[in-house]
Amino acid sequence: MLEHESLQKLQHHYNVPFFTVGPLHKMAPLSRTSLIKEENYCLAWLDKQAYRSVIYVSLGSLATIEEEELQELAWGLANSEQPFLWVIRPASINGSEWIECLPKDFEERTRERGCVVQWAPQKDVLSHPGIGGFLTHCGWNSTLESICEGVPMICRPCFADQLVDSRYLTHVWRVGLELEKTSGRTGIEKAVRKILTSKEGQEMRSRVTKMKQEIESCLLRGGSSYNSLCDLVKFICTFSERI
């Protein structure tokens, strides 16, 4: 249970039942819910990369960024000299349709170690052995999917719950690095190298791997998620008795 301490406080404060069910994407059959066409060829590209060597970059399905930030992110990835898989959603750059505002020589400089797509099958990407880190907006779905696959994160939240999720990842669970909007190319370069190649990155990977194992245990018969789902079903069934 990832939020055990917070849930204990809530249960103490509110006199209502709590059912800690999840993560749902691990409990329900696999289904595709994306409204954007996934470019699955990126998985074949990942197959050619070394183990835990690639940084996956995606800021989700809603956030938009300015052209200046896109260029700083591009140069940060280029200067890190690490392989990357970068999702740039169409119309996610203010004033641009797609990647026309990338630096002119970016593609030539990173052709041998970079892959840019409009959208990716994220669950498959995060479970791929080539992925070593995830530069993310810290939406709750992405956060859970990354933890469930044991992938440490570089956190660049945009709005809403993403700010709280980022705080948990970096300061409570310590499986992520905080990246400010103003970090620039140098900050991005350092963060990518740190999470992929440093001792600190290895320690974060060890912690998130432990969290992954705990989640898997929760889903087994007798685990907290399994039991909570059973309790929820029983609770719903009592409604008919009250009618």
UniProtKB/TrEMBL annotation:
What Pfam families does UniProt report for this protein, alphabetically? UDPGT (PF00201)
Question: What molecular functions are annotated in GO for this chain?
Answer: UDP-glucosyltransferase activity
Kindly give the InterPro entries that the UniProt entry links to this protein: UDP_glucos_trans (IPR002213), UDP_glycos_trans_CS (IPR035595)
What organism does the UniProt record list as the source? Dorcoceras hygrometricum
Q: What is this protein called?
A: UDP-glucuronosyltransferase
Family membership noted in the UniProt record: Belongs to the UDP-glycosyltransferase family.
Q: Does the keyword Translocase apply?
A: no
PROSITE patterns linked to this entry = UDPGT
Q: Which PANTHER family has this protein been placed in?
A: UDP-GLYCOSYLTRANSFERASE 72B1 (PTHR48045), UDP-GLYCOSYLTRANSFERASE 76H1-LIKE (PTHR48045:SF30)
Keywords recorded for this protein, A-Z: Glycosyltransferase, Transferase
